[in-house]
Amino acid sequence: MAEDLNFVDLVSLMRIQPDTIVEKFGGLINSSFFDASNILGSLMQKGMINFTNSSVGQNAITITDLGKQTIKECEERAKSDFDALDFAIITQLSGGKRGLTDLGSSVNVRQRDLALHLYKLSEQQYVSYDMRNGSIDISLTEKGFLQVKSGMPKPQQAQVQEVQQQPQAAQESVAQPAQAHAEAQQAQMQAAQPQAEGAGAASAQEPSTDMKELEERMLRAKKRSTYMVIGVAAVIIIFVLALILIEMKVI
Asked: What is the rounded distance in angstroms from the CA atom of residue 227 to the CA atom of residue 234?
């Protein structure tokens, strides 16, 4: 595609049909024969068209391979998504810049890039244009005006990601309280563990102390029992000896 192609060239190129002749081309672009001839001469210099003699006094217009490639590129670009440069262009149009030169300078792009984006904007109905007397007047449509007021739209991919992230965010919002509750329970269990260990140690010491006391009591009881047995035995012996002595005296 020619680097110096402008929007007037592009629109004029799109108007050329297989049976278009030089002599009638002015009517296709609402321009005089003189203005139409200047535009066709510009397109020929940029390698977009050629002239052939079809009959006496008539010159047919044929689109070159470069011109066909340019048309194909424009049609493909027209199907692309609305982007930041498109928004900058319609914003400048809303501010009153309607000429191609001023519009290109305000967004600081080449006329070729401006032509591609203006064609896309016109195909997507953000702008409309009126070609007359070899020049083009560009205006915002209602769609373009509303887009300027609403601002730069979010990229479609970002919107899809946002929709996908909403369920994930909801799951995280539900999971966070549950996780916090689980962490709180774990902290309580960890705090209670030393207390339980201390209680276990105390309970382990208590049986040891009780066993000692029980052993001492049993030992004391055993001693008392031994003393009682010895005492009873002594009383029995004394009693028996006394009986023996009494019998000996009686005899």
From this structure: 10
Read off the pLDDT of each residue in 240-244 and give the average, rounded to a whole number. 74
CA distances for 115 relative to 2, 103, 235, angstroms: 11, 11, 139
How many residues are listed for the chain in this entry? 251
Assigned token pair, 220: 């004391």
Predicted structure pTM score = 0.60
CB neighbours of 46 closer than 8 A, spacing ≥ 6?
2, 4, 5, 9
End-to-end alpha carbon distance in the chain: 164
pLDDT band at 58 (very low <50, low <70, confident <90, very high): confident
Distance between CA atoms of 128 and 142, rounded to whole angstroms?
Answer: 10
